[in-house]
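seq/struct pair 1
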Amino acid sequence: MAIDPIYSTAFILATSIFTILVVKRLGSQSGCITYGYIGLILFSINIFFIFSGSIFISTLKDTFTVLVSGENYTATVSSYSKEEVYDSDEDKYETMYTPTVSFTTKYGQTIERELDFSTTNLELGDAYKINYNKLDDKVITLGFMLFIKLAGTFIFCFIFSFLFIGELLFAFNKNMDTYYSIVKKAGFYFFLPFLMIGFDALLIYGLLNGNEVPFWVSLVLVFFIVVLTLAIVGYLKTTYAKGVPVMVQVAPNRWVGDWKEEEEEEESIDSYSSD
């Protein structure tokens, strides 16, 4: 996809201005290495912010369009392509299979499409639940793949949006206390619960609507669903009862987050009052 030179120039110019402002606020030595280091960090934040946002919006738009106007079908693997991929963790090559599925629409038309993922375990005749939009001629795989795409793009967009806002506030010499407070609350009250609830929902959806799996796999899913659900309830009860955990430095370069007990809070208040 070609990018308009005007946008590229504007992006480089804006990143350069932000770099100058950030280095000026830091008050550090303004050498080439400092500008290069800060500029590289800001360039990475800005580029990931733009791409994560655009991919998330595109994924959300496409998924919504397909799900609203499409039809659900069960497609079977009719063929596949394969590729040898090196696994650095296990120091060996693995064969990745990209399935091509066929299904018959309610109008009697047989359609074949290659799905947009690869797997190490695939056989002819395997079934996948898909959604087909006749108007746009789009196929989307339902189940784990759909949630993974939405959740993954949202997480990246969420993180880099906060980093970009922080970059702007710091560059324009704004007070960062409110920003830090919002980031901390958003992380503990929203981001962590979102990850836990999203993963739990993914497991539940996979158990109820996923592809057929052996019985023992279903038992493992049920076990993790129960454990994760209990962990979510406990975390939410503790967080909303005691507030955001307090970060305490226990060693050089080591911080631990924990909730203050009521007695500790009362002691800190009493000591502050006596002072």
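seq/struct pair 2
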Amino acid sequence: MINDVPVQERKNFTLSSKPDNTEDTYSKAPVSQFAQNLLSKMGFQEGQPIGKNSQKSSALLKPIEFLSRGDREGLGVNPMKTYRYAGEKEKQESDKFQDVVILSGKYKKMKGVKLEVIKTQGQSDTYLIELKSNGEKIKIAADQVVEAKFYKEEKSRSRSKSKSQKQLKWITSGIVVKVKNKHYQGGKFYNKNISISDVQDEYTFSALGSHGELIEDLKEKDVKVTLPKKGGRVCIVKGEFKGELGQFVEKKEKKIVLVKLENGRLFEFEKKSVCRLI
């Protein structure tokens, strides 16, 4: 169009200066047709292979479609498996947010919630688990996890064989205690703080050492409560207010501490009734 206008007159040229440029004109040449015309000038014919090797049997009949990748997935990553049958996606969705127990490894016997099922082509499924004790999110192989309801059934059967064990009186998950048994594991943990990671049932608990060591065979009598610095978070582990959370204020006497509960009220407690939170 512009080529039909003399060079000296092009500065004054506008679309409206061509009397034959009506809406009808543009409707007769849609964008799709414009692109098709460009391709045909480059040798493209509908239904014929494309590319410089169009005569070979391996030539493409259809263009390569763009497949988007997930967050942080770079070149060379194996794409997620496609769902093999109708309803598989719904099944995967229903597997989320289940209570589970970890069977082996660093987090053995710890409880968590299944947040996501990660499927990767050519590999076993992996679960994204949020631990109930501290909210940490971990990835773990599916065969290392079991639904909590099945684990509890197994535990209840084994527990009936060992009624001689004493029930836990004050241990609860999420607190920091100090090992007072000098002979436990040759004194390796004596007088050191450990974190109660999980309480499996009314008889047993597991803990983590300062370097992440899994501790499973301690008894309640082997540990004692610890206190935080002033202003630190605590849990009431004995008495009328058992289970209440609060803030450590100060030591009043040798065996008495002052705690401000979450409702804002101040109370005095025996030192052995209050324990530091993780």
